[in-house]
Specification:
This protein has 4 helices and 14 strands. By secondary structure, the chain is α+β, with helices and mostly antiparallel strands. A 14-stranded mixed β-sheet has the order 7-8-9-10-11-12-13-1-2-3-4-5-6-14.
């Protein structure tokens, strides 16, 4: 049961890494002021410049989950982004033989969020705070610059803030204005191999999450921009609504079956 819980928890971190891969684009900028208020202003200006160049974007990502040096799951994801709207389609293969597959889709239309399960049922997620979808949330108004440290020989500011009651840390490259590391609840997330999109820094083509003997590695396989994505991708008719806790409880029966195996 512990291994199942670990995979479940790591599945959540995998989702975080996918979303972070998209949102880190909004950080890209050459240099920044050393005050939080100025950081947020610079970030919003950067978003406006990026959106002026990139009408839409499609990213294909492969995420591999490893426990005790053994591959325990693989996620094939496709992320669609159009302005504030986003859609993440994922196919998850779990177990040592990876014969069981779970498909999920998360859609955000700029106002509300939904999860579409394997059966095609659309469930509106009731309790996602709107600020969670705000790209400036990684530099909250009450954040502080608590120090400096180099990551991969790149000088960074350490930005400290709280999220859901947990202490969070963000290492922001002083020059390129991109996050190189984030830590939440003691679990570090590293963003590596940054590349330019629309001649702007940048997007991390590799994200690494480590915790004890477990790790998640996400790798971007392709990026396409300005392909005129249809607005229909971001339209959902919900059949019901649930809280995040209720949605996670839906997976309990499946976990019990996996435990028997």
């Amino acid at each position: 049961m512990k291994s199942i819980k670990r995979l479940r928890r790591f599945g959540r971190f995998a989702t975080i890494s996918l979303v972070m891969m998209v949102l880190t684009i909004t950080f890209a900028q050459e240099g920044f002021s050393t005050t939080i208020s100025q950081l947020r202003q610079d970030l919003l200006k950067k978003i406006e410049r990026f959106d002026a160049r990139v009408r839409d974007m499609t990213i294909q990502i492969e995420t591999i989950m490893v426990v005790d040096k053994k591959e325990m799951g693989k996620i094939q994801s496709k992320i669609f982004r159009k302005g504030p709207k986003a859609r993440i389609e994922s196919r998850v293969k779990v177990g040592s033989d990876q014969t069981e597959e779970i498909t999920t889709t998360i859609v955000y239309d700029g106002k509300d969020a939904w999860m579409i399960n394997t059966l095609g049922q659309a469930i509106k997620i009731e309790d996602i705070p709107k600020e969670q979808m705000d790209p400036t949330r990684f530099i909250p108004e009450d954040a502080v610059i608590s120090g400096e440290e180099a990551i991969d020989d790149r000088p960074c500011y350490i930005i400290t803030f709280k999220e859901f009651g947990e202490e969070c840390y963000l290492w922001l490259d002083k020059v390129r204005f991109v996050p190189l590391k984030m830590e939440r609840g003691g679990t570090p997330i590293f963003f590596k191999d940054y590349r330019q999109v629309a001649k702007m820094w940048g997007i991390p083509y590799r994200t690494l999450i480590t915790e004890d003997s477990r790790e998640i590695v996400s790798s971007i396989k392709s990026v396409k921009i300005n392909t005129d994505l249809s607005d229909e991708l971001f339209k959902v008719e919900a059949t019901e609504s649930m809280s995040l806790k209720e949605i996670m409880d839906m997976f309990a029966p499946m976990e019990k079956e996996m435990e028997k195996e």
